[in-house]
Amino acid sequence: MYQATKTSPGRQRLYIVIVSDVDVLHKFTSKFQHKILAEVVTVCPTTSEEDPLDLTYQNTNTDFNINPCYHNLLEMSAIFAENYKKDESTLSESVVETAKAKFKQHKAIIIKGPRKCGKTTLAALLTSIYQPGEFLIIYKADDTKYISLDKVCLVVVEDFAGKYRYDNVGASDWMRAFDMLHSLVKAGKLNVVLTCKDTFLAECKKDFEDHPIFDNPVQMEESDIRIKQEEDENVTGNLMPFNYNERGWFC
């Protein structure tokens, strides 16, 4: 058998793994020697009744079964939300209070409105009551497989019907996934925030039947970011005018 592990190049090699108790191996090798036993890998240390093996993990913060995609999604969700929460002061207080009240009461809301009205910023603001790792921000219906109900409390579905143009296929996938999400909300297992451009939501309802997960909308308008617009105008107005010399250069 040992010779089969040392075949010449181009020939099939035999791999051998021998499992043995450490004490038994020591007794055997004290009387017999063989090259096949030269390389020993100790998986567990020697134990006794006085010194038993501790099979518990000391690091309780480490999840050895965590999916790397799930881990990355959690981290990206936290970074994404933190980035958008920087603009929360640009939202009107009325729409923020409306969203918080509806979310607290119904546990599932859909934030709708035209592009650039602050839907994502408002959704990010609602994640503030959760710790990183307790919420996911997802875009594709297939990403629902990463929802771990023993860890994740909130799922934010961003632009489920498309971001720049209406996505009929993506919306169709989400309509099937919404059945599951809505059931989890009703069972008290999960909270859900959806964002969608209002015209895309209308097309989605036209192509597919309405869904109860849309029952609690928060309508946003372009005026809901008027604070940011005013600040931009003030910055522009405070800029010192450039003076051009005779060559057309400013100074």
Features:
251 residues, alpha/beta, Rossmann fold, 5-stranded parallel sheet
- Give the CA-based shape: elongated
The biggest sheet, with number of strands, parallel, antiparallel or mixed sense and barrel status, is:
5 strands, parallel
Helix fraction by DSSP (H/I, runs of at least 4)? 25-40%
Mean pLDDT, to the nearest integer, reads: 82
Strand order of the largest sheet: 2-3-4-1-5
CATH architecture of the largest domain: 3-Layer(aba) Sandwich
Return the domain count. Answer: 2
Strand content: 5-15%
The CATH superfamily name of the largest domain is P-loop containing nucleotide triphosphate hydrolases
Helix/sheet category = alpha/beta
Individual helix count: 7
DSSP, total strands: 5
CATH topology of the largest domain: Rossmann fold
Give the distance, in angstroms, between the N- and C-terminal Cα atoms.
87 Å
Q: Low-confidence stretches at least 5 residues in length (pLDDT < 50)?
A: 55-62, 227-233, 239-251
Look at the structure and give the CATH class of the largest domain: Alpha Beta
Q: Radius of gyration, rounded?
A: 30 Å
Summed up:
The protein has 251 residues and is α/β, with parallel strands linked by helices. The chain has two domains: 35 residues, no CATH class; 167 residues, Rossmann fold, CATH 3.40.50.
Description:
The structure is a single chain. By secondary structure, the chain is an alpha/beta fold. It has 2 domains: 3-37, no CATH class; 68-234, P-loop containing nucleotide triphosphate hydrolases (Rossmann fold, 3-Layer(aba) Sandwich), CATH 3.40.50.300. It is built from 7 helices and 5 strands; from the N terminus they run αααβαββαβαβα. The chain has helices at 22-31, 68-85, 93-106, 119-126, 168-186, 198-207, 226-238; strands spanning 108-113, 135-138, 154-157, 191-197, 217-219. Helix 5 (168-186) links the parallel strand 3 (154-157) and strand 4 (191-197). The radius of gyration is 30 Å and the shape is elongated.
